[in-house]
TrEMBL record:
This is Glycerate kinase. Gene3D superfamilies: Glycerate kinase, domain 1, Glycerate kinase, domain 2. It comes from Acetobacter sicerae. GO terms for molecular function: kinase activity. The lineage of its organism: Bacteria, Pseudomonadati, Pseudomonadota, Alphaproteobacteria, Acetobacterales. The keyword Kinase applies.
Length: 386
């Protein structure tokens, strides 16, 4: 039997490769002669850098960049094994989890650090970029990113705007005369799993602003600022991007990367799947195992297990999944192609205990599922059924 294990991380407890390895340990106890292919995966959010660096024998690059409130922060990006592909997580330089609840203010936060990462990767020789938009603390339409790469955002007096989404209300002109010239040599893929436009009731400010600390009044002001921003992108740069699905992702960073990086917005799992060659891997196996930290009704909306299941279903391969926990409407994953789903937690416990015991719990759960699978196979042989 040949088994592919393709999992996302269990947040705050196990990396994606650690999840896959734990499941393999449990299964090998019951199927010692099985062949396993374990791969870390991600959907473009947290863990994407780790997954692609690990899978391609790449490297992790640590660097100090501008943080979401302007102060220097320690950040990182990945370079895959080809030496030319940089993998960047927006959350590593402009992430919501970098700020306390009292610091969250999408009117002031900036994506400049993401641009710092791009510039550093350019210096490192990278010309292909994969940028994951998940987890941002910002609403500046990636203006800060563009500033780090040489763009100037000017008010009516010709003065440069300060950082943050609210400042865009005073934007009178965009000047790209000093824009980083090496960008013309690059291809940029942006992992984007939402289809929100830039503006309006379904746009960046209204949908994602409250999650980042915006009041109702601030949401209205931020949307008005992005209206000005969209007009300037169109009139100054000839880029009409506000209505493109995904333009509103990460506080309008979808629109900004389209305008300044000539990016292509794609589902995160699709990008990762291609990089890892998952289709060829799954084509060769008998069983597919996937998982993530919490599996619930939201899993089917672009998360790693749903992507793995969709690919496996197309290839006619059965899929089971493990989660650190199972949440509301978890039964929806069955319609997405996951035949069975299991929680690894084995007893009532606190979150801290579940995180601390994640690996032994997962090994135990995988071993028990494998034993059940072996029992079913034995019964099939004894009864002559298939």
């Amino acid at each position: 039997m040949k088994i592919a294990i393709v999992c996302d991380s269990f947040k705050e407890s196990l990396s994606a490769i650690s999840v896959a390895e734990a499941i393999q340990v449990g299964f090998q106890e019951i199927f010692p002669d099985a062949e396993f292919i374990a791969r870390p995966a991600a959907d473009g959010g947290e863990g994407t850098v780790s997954a692609l660096v690990s899978a391609t024998n790449g490297k992790l690059v640590e660097v100090s960049v501008t943080g979401p409130l302007g102060a220097p922060v320690n950040s990182f990006y990945g370079v895959t094994g080809d030496g030319r592909t940089a993998v960047i997580e927006m959350a590593a330089a402009a992430g919501l989890e970098m700020l306390s609840s009292g610091q969250r203010d999408p009117g002031r936060t900036t994506t400049r650090g993401v641009g710092d990462l791009i510039r550093h990767a350019l210096d490192d020789g990278c010309r292909h970029f994969i940028i994951g938009l998940g987890g941002s603390a910002t609403n500046d339409g990636a203006a800060g990113l563009a500033q780090a790469l040489g763009a100037r955002f000017l008010d009516e007096q010709g003065q440069e705007l300060e950082a943050g989404g609210l400042a865009l209300r005073r934007l009178a002109r965009i000047d790209l005369s000093n824009m980083e010239p090496r960008l013309a040599e690059c291809t940029v893929e942006v992992a984007c799993d939402v289809d929100n436009p830039l503006l309006g009731t379904e746009g960046a400010s209204a949908v994602f602003g409250p999650q980042k600390g915006a009041s109702a009044e601030l949401v209205e002001a931020l949307d008005a600022a992005l209206v000005v921003y969209a007009r300037r992108l169109e009139e100054d740069l000839g880029k009409k991007v506000g209505d493109i699905p995904g333009a509103g992702a990460a506080g309008g960073a979808g629109a900004g990367t389209l305008a300044f990086l000539n990016s292509r917005l794609r589902p995160g799992f699709e990008i990762v799947s291609e990089m890892l060659g998952l289709e060829e891997i799954l084509r060769s196996v008998d069983l597919v195992i996937t998982g993530e930290g919490r599996i619930d009704g939201q899993t089917i909306r672009g998360k790693t297990p749903a992507g793995v299941a969709a690919l496996a279903r197309r290839l006619g391969k059965p899929v089971i999944a493990f989660g650190g926990s199972l949440g509301p409407e978890v039964e929806k994953v069955h319609d997405a192609g996951i035949e069975a789903v299991f929680a690894s937690v084995s007893r009532p416990c606190t979150l801290a205990e579940a995180l601390a015991e994640a690996r032994p719990n997962l090994i135990r759960a995988a071993r028990n599922v494998a034993a059940t699978l072996r029992l079913g196979m034995t019964l099939d042989r004894e009864t002559g059924t298939t």
